[in-house]
Amino acid sequence: MVRQTLAQQLTASLVEQIGNGTYRVGDRLPSLRECMRLFGYSKNTVINAYEALASQGLVEARHGQGFFVKQGAPISSEPEEPQPFTRAMDTIWLMRQQFVREPGHSPLGEGFPPVEWLMDLRLDKFTRQIMRIGVTTLFRYGNRLGNAALRQHLVQKLASYSITASARQIVTTHGANHALDLIIRRFIAPGDYVCVEDPGYYPLFGKLQLQGARMLSVPRLPDGPDMEVLEQHLLLHKPKLFFIQSVGHNPTGSDISPGKAHRLVQLAQEHNFILVDDDALADFKPASAIKVSALDQLKCSLYVGSFSKSVSAALRVGFIAGSKDVIDELGDLKMLLHTSTSELCERTVDVILTEGHFLRHLIRLQERLKAATAAGLQMLDEIGAEVFVRPEQSLYLWARFPHIDDARELTRQLLPKGFMIAPGHIFSPEQSRVNPWTRLNVAYLNDPLLKAVLRG
Prior knowledge:
Blueprint: H1 6-19, H2 32-39, H3 43-55, E1 59-62, E2 66-69, H4 84-99, H5 123-132, H6 148-160, E3 170-173, H7 175-187, E4 193-198, H8 202-211, E5 214-221, E6 224-225, H9 227-237, E7 241-244, H10 258-271, E8 274-278, H11 292-296, E9 301-306, E10 318-321, H12 324-338, H13 343-354, H14 357-382, E11 386-387, E12 396-400, H15 407-414, E13 422-423, E14 438-441, H16 448-455
């Protein structure tokens, strides 16, 4: 068997995507630079692949614009159902795009706060302290549920949210994404129905696709999920889980209303499904913000928390809280898949929580966020943008700009001018749909140059 070159592999992949309708007649293929970044290929490899497509009559080159799918390109009438990994790769590529920091570009679409907002914690100081105390334990695997001292601090953290739990009801994870992965592996089998918010957290969609789950979209409204659509899904499909974000919703920045939170808990009890409350942005909101997990006290919900955005993404420390039986199962699954989480990282977070630095850090963090949100809203008002919801403090704002019907086009317009945004289509389970909305990080929004570019 003759081994294909990288150019031939890329050509074959694009031929298949054109054939199954991923790229339709008139669609523009990724630019050479975008394709190089997405696939990790050299410029010559991409050029050779695109020229091969052109020679087959599938695409045409338009000077200064790129390569476009031609009229008459063969389209499969009955495309094969893509395998879970193939479907999940779309999300993987999107994550690569989001995690790349281009020099000289303003990261308007970035999911994290600026590093300067986190630097006051001085992680180097805590690391030295940890190395002086109980250093021998750092050479062994940790407890399957996680560092005991940290879990006790998490009991107190949950109590500040009015969630009562013991340390045996908490398992630590490598951040919120690992937590979601463990929950999906435990509860979802291929073909199972699950409800997700639309728009919602797009890495979750990739995980569910990888597991072979069937996603049911529930529109996210300014005050929480669309309850009528959810109830229809519950009656027709009996989903096993509903993944939600009570507060600081990613990407809209919205918070759930008390009435909807109570109704969600009632529905979970009536229809026997699990509410997965992904609260990775909890530290950016007041502790009094309502959470569905506080209403049912973890009877029909799982609470997911993280320190990635408020302390450091490099530490990779998160956690799941739930009933003791479920946490025992998730702890066993975690041990099977990863043996344990990082004792060093978890002790670092434990020391930060122990010495009271964290509370002072959160006060400064939320003050910065409140000021940035107000400034961002003012700027959007001045250029005539429509804002989905107007929170007092939120890392994200969900907005659409005048005369923009597809945020992907806005993305292409802004990139050469030094601004990288997160277009709305990536936050939907149906990513092929045209979407005029975009997620904006408030920390980078109040930029005079951006205002001038958007006005122009």
